[in-house]
Amino acid sequence: ATRCYEEAIARSSSEWDGHVGMGLLAEDNGWWNRARQSYDRAIAAAGDEDRFDRLLAPTPANLYWQLSRRLHRLDRTEDAVKALRVAIERGVRGRGAYPERKAYKELAELLVPLGRGSEASEAYFRAGRGFDQRNEQQHAAEMFGKAVDLAPQDARSWWYLADSLRLLSYRPEFPYFDEQSSQQVSRSLECWEKGCHLREPDAEWAWVYWTRALLNDQRGRIGGYSRDLSWESAAYLERAIILAPRMTGAWGTLGVDHHQLDNLATALAATDRALSLDPDDASALEGRARVMISMG
Questions:
Q1: What is the mean pLDDT of residues 81-90?
Q2: Assign residue 115 a region: left if phi > 0, alpha if psi is -120 to 50, beta otherwise?
Q3: CB 127 within 8 A of CB 108
């Protein structure tokens, strides 16, 4: 296939469809830089971006992504936004999972100077979700931070920012925190409270209460465990479970907190419930083992 496209381009480099074909082939092989170069050549050869859908359907999403970048360089920002929205709608491709995260980031950066803050905030939020799902928490926190700067009334972004900052506070080796961790936990708690001041989590957002309980766990590591922290965590976990009774992680964490409170029967019941929902949950298995050891 590569040879066929190369021959077609050699016969007439001004025919843009050969470059599009080469771009698609490059995408299929994961040659992302080559794909972008091919789409750039296709755009230059076409001259009129409206030709794409007239002559080839469906036009590759990543071609529209490259078109958006070209239009932005030409100071045609509104047109760049339109092209990038088409790209996202059609499903951009890229290296690794959730490639759309970078497209949403670019979309937000186009929207900000146009004064479209609400739309930009939503784009940053979606970018953050992509980075979060890839566990790229530094980038996720940056995106959620930009989202709340533009739309401070959006509880979702505050909650996700809180969770990203919590995750960033952990260190890979004992004691699993350092001096910066304390600042990250304090900031996470502040963001969590701002989100909950705007609205209470419902069933869809029950995990927000679990995040708050996990924050207490990290606070205990940093400042020393206390029964007050464990009781507070248990209360938040019960809220999460009321909203989402099948949240395995919340049940498992509830078992940990009651273990710390020496409520061994309750801890055992909570970890049993977690394992009934997911028999392979490593955290629940470990928690149950610790409870069993304590019970002798």
A1: 96
A2: left
A3: yes
SS3 call for 169? coil
Tokens of 220: 């205990």
pTM: 0.91
Burial call 179-216: b when 16+ CB within 10 Å, e when fewer? eebeebbebbbebbebbbeeeebeeebbbbbbbbbbbb
Model pLDDT for residues 172-209, shown as the tens digit of each residue: 999 999 999 999 999 999 999 999 999 999 999 999 99
Q: Using one digit for the tens of pLDDT, what is the confidence trace for 52-69?
A: 555 455 689 999 999 999
pLDDT of residue 236: 98
Check residue 116 and report its DSSP letter.
Answer: -
Distance CA 19, CA 140 (A): 34
DSSP 95: S
Token pair of 279 as six digits: 């028999």
The pLDDT tens digits for 221-235 are 999 999 999 999 999
Residue 193 to residue 183: CA distance in whole angstroms: 16
Angle at alpha carbon of residue 67, lines to 66 and 69, rounded to 5°: 65
Residues 6+ apart with CB under 8 A from 156: 125, 195, 205
* CA atoms within 13 A of residue 88's CA, in its CB half-sphere: 21
With tokens 């965590």, the residue in question is 233
State the pLDDT at residue 154: 98
pLDDT-above-70 percentage for the chain: 91
Tell me the two tokens of residue 194.
Answer: 């701002």
3-class SS at 196?
A: helix
Q: Are 169 and 177 in contact (CB under 8 A)?
A: yes
- Whether the bond between 58 and the residue before it is cis, its omega within 30 degrees of 0, is yes
